[in-house]
Design brief:
The complex is a heterodimer.
Chain A: E1 3-7, E2 11-12, E3 18-25, E4 33-39, E5 46-52, E6 57-59, E7 67-72, E8 77-82, E9 91-99, E10 107-111, E11 115-119
Chain B: E1 9-12, E2 18-23, E3 32-37, E4 44-47, E5 61-66, E6 69-74, E7 83-91, E8 94-97, E9 101-105
Parallel strand pairs in B: 1-9
Antiparallel strand pairs in B: 2-6, 3-4, 3-7, 5-6, 7-8, 7-9
Classes of the chains: A mainly beta, B mainly beta.
Chain lengths: ~120, ~110
Amino acid sequence: QVQLQESGPGLVKPSETLSLTCTVSGASINFYYWSWIRQPPGKGLEWIGSIYYSGSTNYNPSLKSRLTISLDTANNRFSLRQSSVTAADTAVYYCARLNRGVAGTDAFDVWGLGTMVTVSS
Amino acid sequence: SNELTQPPSVSVSPGQTASISCSGDQLGDKYISWYQQKPGQSPVVVIYQDKKRPSGIPERFSGSNSGNTATLTISGTQTMDEADYYCQLWGSSTVVFGGGTKLTVL
C-alpha cells in the first residue's frame, strides 16, 4: 500500500522560503510523477508542480519563478521549496502521485494527508 | 486555454441523479479525472480517463467527456456522496483543476 507523508514547518514568515518534504512508502520513487498541490482555506485545489523520476520538472506558470521541486532517491522522498512567500501562500499543501504513462491512469491516485502552512510574522 | 469551469454548487435529493459539469476548450480531446473531497480529508479520485472507475469506487459514479464538456454523474445519490468535486486535466505539460462544485444531498 503506497503512502505519502508531508513534513515541514507549519509557520513561515513573509518573504522567507517554504520548505516541505514528502516521504514515499510502499513504492519506489523511481517511477511516476510526484507532485505538490495546495488548497487555501475554504478554496479549491491548485497544482503547484510535478517532478518525474528522471528529474524533469513541470511547474504552474503562475508560481514557476519561486519554485524548486527536487528528488531524493536515496531516501525515497521529494521536496518543495517556494521562495518569497506571502499570506496568499497560506494553504494546506498536499503531495500526490500522478500516475501517467502507458499503463497509467493520468490521475493523482495517491495523496498525502496534507500539511497546513501559515505565512505570518 | 486550459481553464476548467464548474458550477459552484449542485443540489440533489437522495436517490436521484446528480450531474456535475466541467467545461473547457476542446475538452473532449483530453483525458479528464474527477476527485471527491469531503471536509477535512484529502481528495480521492473517483473517475479517471473520462469514464473509468478506480477499484473501490461505487458503480453509481460515472463519467463522460465530449466536445467542450465533461460530466460526472452520480446515479442513486446517497447522503455519503455530499462533498466537493473537482475535475482535472493534464494539458501542455501542466495540470489544471476546475474550481470545484459543492454537491449537497437533501
